[in-house]
Specification:
The complex is a heterodimer. Chain A is an alpha+beta fold. Chain A is 58% helix and 18% strand. In chain B, α2 runs parallel beside α3. Classes of the chains: A alpha+beta, B alpha/beta.
């Protein structure tokens, strides 16, 4: 084979291998792009999965809270369930559940926690319209302390959050939250959902339990009266 | 897998919340106890418990006492224990783990975190 034809053969091989290399590079680029899209999709799926997990958790909290609130007609037990929701599901360390005395228009603590970190929480007594708690009861609107304000530290008169307990437009009490557990820096999205649930469901549960215990007492009185009549006649 | 979980909690709300999360495990069997003593009674029964989830602050017998008693019992000492409590300070966590708990979760619980922790502890 002459030098010339060897050179042509070499050139031909060189061109083929160049075309092949270019083809490989194009394929490589195409695969790299596809991988990028897949990575993005995986990230999206992971984010979506986390979001769904969170929503599941939130729904579980709401379901359990609602189920427990309506599981009893005993007044003390209902109050106890409200305390469990505030402590275990929301993560509050210091809080008070205040109920309204309709005759005197005074809100008073009926249950609380965290007397050591918020002294006086066990004996709050405030009139409707007085201070933040009284105003929450008057207006029926939830109050949150502005945590961006560095001077806004919670005090007995100024809680972190105050949630009215409402049956339609009638306020029967207020939940005041003063301090969260040491490992919980702030309220989360589900906490606001739980506040909304407590505002309505805790109010009806407390109201129903009160009515039930009143009717039980009346029934006992009537029964005692009837027993007395039967024994004396 | 058919795992048996013992949930030790005095609060019915938390018992239900934890049981709800445990349903993620297929065929999970959930046994509930209201305090440490009730848990020991159930542990001494015929059921072979695979994992214990316990609160700390409970009447009659608290969770820390339960952990210590389980770890002292030759037939129970290998059961993994998770403490679930409102006591989230570092010293509380260290105390629980020092007594022999395998994991420590602060309330309010996140289901995903609880499931991950359990999955790491179950064989």
């Amino acid at each position: 084979m002459s030098d010339e034809s060897r050179a042509e053969k070499f050139l031909e091989l060189f061109n083929k291998s160049r075309e092949f290399t270019e083809e490989l590079l194009r394929e490589n680029e195409r695969l790299r792009r596809q991988l990028g899209i897949l990575e993005e999709q995986t990230k999206d799926y992971a984010a979506r999965y986390t979001e769904i997990e969170q929503q599941n958790n939130n729904l579980a909290s709401l379901y359990v809270a609602s189920y427990q609130l309506h599981s009893t007609l005993d007044f003390r037990e209902v109050i106890h369930v409200v305390q469990e929701i505030i402590r275990d599901l929301i993560g509050a360390k210091a809080y008070a559940i205040l109920l309204l005395d309709e005759r005197t228009s005074v809100l008073q603590t009926v249950a609380c926690d965290g007397e050591d970190v918020m002294p006086g929480v066990e004996k709050i007594s405030t009139r409707i319209g007085e201070g933040i708690i009284g105003e929450v009861a008057r207006r029926g609107e939830t109050y949150y302390l502005d945590r961006d304000d560095e001077n806004a530290r919670p005090t007995l008169q100024r809680p972190l959050a105050a949630i009215p307990l409402k049956i339609k437009d009638q306020v029967i009490g207020v939940i005041a939250i003063y301090r969260l557990l040491v490992h919980k820096p702030a309220f989360t999205a589900v906490d606001y959902e739980l506040f909304a649930l407590l505002a309505a469901h805790a109010a009806t549960a407390i109201f129903s339990a009160k009515l039930y215990s009143q009717s039980e007492r009346k029934l006992n009185t009537i029964q005692s009266f009837l027993d007395l009549l039967t024994t004396t006649s | 897998m058919n795992s048996k979980f013992l949930v030790v909690e005095d609060s019915p709300t938390m018992r239900q919340m934890i049981s709800f999360s445990l349903r993620r495990f297929q065929n999970a069997e959930i046994i509930e106890a209201v305090d440490g003593l009730d848990a020991l009674r159930k542990l001494s029964g015929p059921l072979k418990i695979d994992l214990i989830l316990t609160d700390i602050n409970m009447p009659v017998m608290d969770g820390l006492k339960l952990v210590s008693m389980v770890r002292q019992n030759a037939s129970l000492r290998d059961i993994p224990i998770i403490i679930i409590t409102t006591e989230g300070a570092e010293e509380d966590r260290e105390r629980g783990l020092a007594l022999g708990a395998n994991a420590y979760i602060a309330k309010p619980i996140q289901s995903s975190h609880l499931i991950r922790t359990i999955s790491e502890l179950l064989p």
